[in-house]
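User:
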Amino acid sequence: AGTYLMLLEWTMSSATPSLQMAWQVSVVRLLPVSHPVLQACPVGTTTQSPAATTAADCTVVLPGYRPLFDADGHAIGAQPCPVGTFSPSGRQCDPCPHGLTTQGPKQTSDAECLAPPGYGYYPNKTAAVANASNSFMAASFIEASEEGATAVVACPSGSYKSGWNLDTCISCGDGLLTDPVPATSSDNCYLPPGFGSKLSINS
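Assistant: Predicted structure:
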């Protein structure tokens, strides 16, 4: 196994009766050819151009990573941006705004900053309180706003939110609660003991 360079020897044949010359070829010897083994750059880095020859050429940090330095401040590689941050340029990891977070590390854009399931995104908390479907939800939003000063609020009992997105919490309906809290699905909505639905009363 391997790659070899084949040396050939060409000779003119004298056994040809016509004026057309014939040539014979024979293999003289095979010379092994060595190929350099391609080495990958450290994780999170690459080179500025092709044909790099040493690991010292791996100076470009990829998006989703940040430079990793030794004790003397010399760049020695890269490390992934942690959850809740992103890096479009590979220079630094920027935190997600407004209390949003990411689904995993190594994110490259602020478009990956979202509210997780069970949490609503309220860039205008005053409007969120005003539009709350019931007084219990409104009180919960006010309390969350005062505590965290963030636009991401855990859906209070009686509301839910599914998926990673920038949606607000959805009300289960008047008188309904949720378990657990925060809830991630309408399946978590329930009618508490001692209360009946209008449908059951009318029937």
